[in-house]
């Protein structure tokens, strides 16, 4: 994703996805129930727009191939509960990042650089698990409150 990607457009895409999948701050139980029903494969494309990841990068985050995603879309299949939860948590993560970073392009850059509060791990590498997404969210909260140590 280039830096020229309109920050307002990106913010609107996050808001739209959050609204569509009924993601509300701090309501993890609702998110679990939604994930259990499985997100439609089309949600993958919404995340591509939001994250700026390549198709293969986002598929790797989910632990599946892009070819599988294409097949799911063609067959109108839904993602399993684990992949759905990951996608929902990533949308929620972007919601939080939108509150903290001036624009989501800055957050996308931050995701690709070692983060001191995450043991110098590159945050994007932690998106492959629910726990990793939670660690990134915790780091965002530390950034928000100025507690970087």
Descriptive labels:
mainly alpha; 8 helices; single chain
H/E series, N to C? HHHHHHHH
Number of helices: 8
Which spans of ≥5 residues are poorly predicted at pLDDT below 50? none
Largest sheet composition: none
Oligomeric nature of the chains: single chain
Radius of gyration over C-alpha positions, nearest whole angstrom: 15 Å
Mean pLDDT rating: 91
From the helix content, strand content and strand pairing, which structural class follows? Answer: mainly alpha
In total, the number of strands is: 0
End-to-end separation in angstroms reads 30 Å
Shape: globular
Helical content band: 55-70%
Percentage of residues in strands: under 5%
Give the tally of structural domains: 1
Provide a compact summary of the structure.
The protein is mostly helical and 149 residues long. The chain has helices at residues 7-20, 28-37, 43-51, 55-62, 66-74, 81-100, 104-111, 130-144. It is built from 8 helices and no strands.
Your description of this structure?
- With 149 residues, the chain is mostly helical.
- It has one domain (7-144).
- 62% of the residues lie in helices and 0% in strands.
- The chain has helices at residues 7-20, 28-37, 43-51, 55-62, 66-74, 81-100, 104-111, 130-144.
- Helix 3 runs parallel beside helix 6 (81-100).
- The longest helix has 20 residues, at 81-100.
- It is globular, with a radius of gyration of 15 Å.
- The mean pLDDT is 91.
Helices and strands, with pairings:
Elements: H1 7-20, H2 28-37, H3 43-51, H4 55-62, H5 66-74, H6 81-100, H7 104-111, H8 130-144
């Amino acid at each position: 994703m280039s830096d020229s990607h309109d920050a307002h457009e990106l913010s609107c895409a996050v808001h739209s996805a959050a609204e569509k999948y009924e993601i509300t701050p701090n309501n993890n139980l609702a998110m679990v129930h939604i994930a259990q029903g499985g997100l439609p494969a089309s949600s993958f494309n919404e995340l591509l727009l939001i994250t700026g990841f390549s198709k293969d990068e986002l598929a790797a985050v989910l632990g599946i191939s892009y070819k599988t995603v294409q097949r799911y879309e063609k067959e109108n299949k839904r993602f399993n509960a684990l992949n759905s939860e990951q996608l929902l948590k990533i949308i929620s993560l972007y919601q939080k990042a939108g509150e903290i970073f001036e624009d989501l392009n800055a957050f996308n850059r931050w995701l690709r650089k070692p983060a001191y509060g995450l043991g110098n791990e590159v945050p994007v590498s932690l998106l492959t698990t629910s726990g990793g997404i939670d660690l990134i969210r915790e780091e965002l909260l530390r950034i928000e409150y100025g507690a970087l140590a």
